[in-house]
């Protein structure tokens, strides 16, 4: 339908000698010896259109008046370009369209920045004129990729009998988790809805209702301070099923992601994805979302150095901690003493008191702490498989601090040393998560995932006695060092749910106030169930090779949670506030 | 995956003599002569499971302990029921499962209402225990239908190159349209986001960005007083395309709906759908969303009665109004004089001063106004095709009041007289809408659709001089008397958009403040574009044969915009309000 017969970017061999009609935007107009060439652009790409006054004087005159970003409808004949005119950098570079008709559908002012892949425009101006920014081929492709990803996921889940069921956006504020966005109720003064941080409870209730398999690709909200890969609103691929094991849910997730990889990247991933326990990941990579595209694992040297006369190591070990090392192969010359000071400073952000290091030279280990380690240098070299030119760094502290520090150093060095094969997509399951984390600020245990996660059956006795020992039937899926998503079996009895809430510090009163309806629901034949939630923004970001989710969201907010285009958020009328029974207490920013 | 081999409701001939495993809920348990029969239910339906102590004493004992809504896993062999045991009212009624294993996966308290199709439970308790309410077969089926409808629509639009692109939920409040739900910004004190009433401007900007074809099945929000078919949040099938005519967009919409009818109802609808202008619909049916499943059209008698000596008619005609009639065939005996008084009262809600009426008897027209019409009774009988036993009602007032009154009477009588064939699905396009409606309360023209609707080209000159004369390139799709959705071509030049906003009473300043970013966008090569938005809730409601959208929403709000299950909206902590820089001024309800 419509006049267009083919998209500009899809003009191909089968159109040769055909009369076609195109609709698109002027990417570029050139006049070469009285003949006008217009690169016409639509969402699929660009094709060259030729206006020769000998073919149509009238079309030539109109083409001559066109400027960048004019919207045109053009009819002409597809022709093979001569050998020397072929543009191998263009998908349609073998062809051109000899135009005999042209209509200007709309004109355009000169855009504030040029519509090119490598724009020099800053983030703010790109967001202010987002509709122009999105015309740039890489942005258009990012959003088309996103659409293809969601389509693939939906079709997969549809085919596997998952039902797409919508849950409310106007929900109830709960104290667990991040800060809620609130929505004042007009009808109920002093009362507020909260926008969902996730449809967690609703999807569990859908299992209770018997829908058996549910999914939703759904917006979620968190009023947190923003970072590179955070937005006030984000999109979650939300999946829940009854009567399945964690392994079943993981298998569906893998097959779904394999489908996405095949249909959007043309890549056959190997199934099943590797699995690693949380303990192992922390031990070997110092991270619960390890990037396994490169090695440089953490090496435990606690045993090796247990007798050396170096206070830092001794203190760590005496306090029940560990001494671990990273070997940055061949990196000794990349890092000066000053660079190492910087790295040491970086390490201190993660709680380390410093970063001890050695360089491997022809005549042995060199560096500030080498003198303490002479007795064990052979063992260190053996354990770290060190060779001349390697840089070895040490962490000595509690297991947690060493993991956090060396994990971060590992990631940073990989980037700095260009160790990462960017063509790889390394999926990885992290299983057997701890049920709780101790929150030192709040002085209590908090959920590592959320309060509805099912503990491992054998650990249930520790819920009251030693929560740190309780592991969960929980799993995260990691891609290239990013947490793509996480899931778990959920608790399906009231008794166990109450126990877990109690461990989290809930009194009977507060648990009934906040989660009473869930607790009650657990008494009416709640089926065993579990699920997973994946971050769509992050998945598409990684597939698109971008490093900020803003690049795969049509209309994101900036770093201050503002939309520079529409100026949201904005002030509102006094009547609006009056009707909502609220008053602003402070208007300064 | 999982242990289940087949859904309860899908046990069929091909399972005969197979050993199958089921998972589901106890719908009913009976003990007949020492054999236990359990009707086991899952989302697909019910199957009868038989526990015979001679097959397994242990399974029999466990089955004996089961109560309603217990969650079971059962393994057994599928067997043909004996002729006399066949239950023709059950999909699986020819079969039963001889169980040899059973596991209780969860127990259940006695539900507050029974899980049956015809529940006597009230709306509030159904919403409070929504997870139980949704276990009722008709509710389960409604939501499965909804999932199938969205799936069908998505697949259709995917196949036709529409891209699924997400737009923001945290947007900007605008004064046009209904009341916004607001979201206070924590980072920007005194500033508010608004939840979208529709992604209208964003989808237009996506056209400007060149995406060519867009869709989204998206939640929208309106803080309005609730009615039967209104909820604070509702779901819109949102479609926009560039370079297409209204007819193209209508054709896509028709094909999409035909696909839905085929795949969910097994009905082949006839394409194209009939079209009627807005003027004709108002003239013939007194409604912009006529239910064409029955006749009883409005008949214009202005010419016939122009000389009769009846003041009510004369006044109406002298004031430029009309006299129209409805003929309720054969209904004379259904309506007593008292009933007619009630109808007359009902009519007055729509602005009518009363409802004149006649009954057709053997010896002519009878009734309070018959005496005025003796001279023209033959003509009236001819024009209304009246026969003995008919009830004829008259409206005499302005065109608008007569349309509103007789339109409402027509719909009410059809229901009361059972004139509607409930198996029919009558789709209808209403085209050529007025661009504006005069709002008597506000004393200005308001948009009949929205301010971005493209006027008919020939009417543009009237924008400043006589807005009432301006018709729009707008269209609504109507199903069985309900507005399913509406769309239009949109304005794609700044000049015309400014003219329309001016007619709506915007000053240059306010239009720049509210819509400045759109006006600016219109200057950068905005393509001709248009679209449509359909109400998903209403579509599914009509397909499900329900008369309230609550019945097709998983977790709706009640008539007071409350969720009786989670108790949203709720009070929040003082810290939450402090962080948002707002104060509650009134907490009374």
TrEMBL record, chains A, B:
The keyword Protein biosynthesis applies. Keywords: Aminoacyl-tRNA synthetase, ATP-binding, Cytoplasm, Ligase, Nucleotide-binding, Protein biosynthesis. L-aspartate binds at residues 176, 222, 449, 490. InterPro entries: Aa-tRNA-synt_II, aa-tRNA-synth_II, aa-tRNA-synth_II/BPL/LPL, Asp-tRNA-ligase_1, Asp-tRNA-ligase_1_N, Asp/Asn-tRNA-synth_IIb, AspRS_core, GAD-like_sf. GO terms for cellular component: cytoplasm. GO terms for molecular function: aspartate-tRNA ligase activity; ATP binding; catalytic activity, acting on a protein; nucleic acid binding; transferase activity. Residues 143-564 form the Aminoacyl-transfer RNA synthetases class-II family profile domain. Catalyzes the attachment of L-aspartate to tRNA(Asp) in a two-step reaction: L-aspartate is first activated by ATP to form Asp-AMP and then transferred to the acceptor end of tRNA(Asp). Homodimer. HAMAP family: Asp_tRNA_synth_type1. This is Aspartate--tRNA ligase. It comes from Tetragenococcus koreensis.
């Amino acid at each position: 339908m419509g006049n267009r017969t083919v998209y500009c970017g899809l003009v191909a061999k089968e159109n040769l000698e055909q009369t076609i009609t195109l609709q698109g935007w002027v990417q570029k107009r050139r006049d070469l010896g009285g003949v006008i060439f217009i690169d016409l652009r639509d969402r699929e790409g660009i094709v060259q259109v030729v206006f020769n006054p000998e073919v149509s004087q009238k079309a030539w005159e109109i083409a001559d008046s066109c400027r960048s970003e004019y919207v045109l409808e053009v009819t002409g004949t597809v022709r093979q370009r001569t050998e020397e005119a072929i543009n191998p950098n263009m998908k349609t570079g073998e062809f051109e369209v000899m135009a005999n008709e042209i209509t200007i559908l709309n004109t355009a002012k000169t855009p504030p920045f040029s519509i090119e892949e490598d724009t020099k425009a800053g983030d703010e101006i790109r967001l202010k004129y987002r509709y122009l920014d999105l015309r740039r081929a890489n942005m258009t492709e990012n959003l088309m990729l996103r659409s293809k990803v969601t389509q693939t996921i939906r079709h997969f889940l549809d085919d596997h009998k998952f039902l797409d069921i919508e849950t409310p956006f106007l929900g109830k504020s709960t104290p667990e988790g991040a800060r809620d966005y609130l929505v004042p109720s007009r009808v109920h003064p002093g009362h507020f809805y909260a926008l969902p941080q996730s449809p967690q409870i609703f999807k569990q209730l859908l299992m209770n209702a018997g829908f058996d398999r549910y999914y939703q690709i759904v917006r979620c909200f968190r009023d947190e301070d923003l970072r590179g890969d955070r937005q006030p609103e984000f999109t979650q691929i939300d999946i829940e099923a009854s009567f399945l094991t964690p392994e079943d849910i993981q298998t569906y997730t893998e097959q779904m992601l394999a489908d996405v990889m095949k249909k959007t990247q043309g890549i056959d991933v190997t199934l099943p994805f590797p699995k690693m326990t949380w303990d192992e990941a922390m031990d070997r990579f110092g991270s619960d979302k390890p990037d396994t595209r490169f090695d440089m694992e953490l090496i435990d040297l606690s045993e090796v150095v247990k007798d050396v006369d170096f206070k830092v190591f001794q203190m760590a070990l005496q306090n029940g901690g560990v001494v671990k090392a990273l070997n940055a192969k061949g990196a000794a010359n990349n890092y000066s003493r000053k660079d190492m000071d910087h790295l040491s400073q970086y390490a201190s952000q993660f709680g380390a008191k410093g970063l001890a290091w050695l360089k491997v030279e022809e005549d042995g280990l060199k560096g500030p702490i080498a003198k303490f380690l002479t007795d064990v240098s052979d063992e260190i070299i053996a354990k770290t498989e060190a060779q001349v030119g390697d840089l070895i760094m040490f962490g000595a502290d509690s297991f947690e601090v060493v993991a956090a520090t060396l994990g971060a150093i590992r990631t940073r060095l990989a980037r700095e040393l260009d160790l990462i094969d960017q063509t790889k997509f390394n999926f990885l399951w992290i299983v057997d998560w701890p049920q709780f984390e101790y929150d030192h600020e709040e002085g209590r245990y908090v959920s590592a995932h959320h309060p509805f996660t099912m503990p491992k059956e054998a650990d249930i006795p520790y819920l009251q006695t030693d929560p740190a020992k309780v592991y969960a039937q929980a799993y995260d899926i990691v891609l290239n060092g990013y947490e793509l998503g996480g899931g778990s079996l959920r608790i399906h009895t009231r008794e166990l749910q109450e126990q877990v809430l109690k461990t989290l510090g809930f009194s009977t009163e507060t648990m009934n106030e906040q989660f009473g309806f869930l607790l009650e629901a657990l008494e009416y034949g709640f089926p065993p169930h579990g699920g997973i939630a994946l971050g769509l923004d992050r998945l598409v970001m990684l597939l698109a090779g971008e490093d900020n989710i803003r690049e795969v969201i049509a209309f994101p907010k900036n770093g201050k949670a503002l939309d520079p285009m529409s100026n949201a958020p904005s002030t509102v009328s006094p009547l609006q506030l009056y009707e909502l029974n609220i008053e602003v207490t402070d208007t300064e920013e």
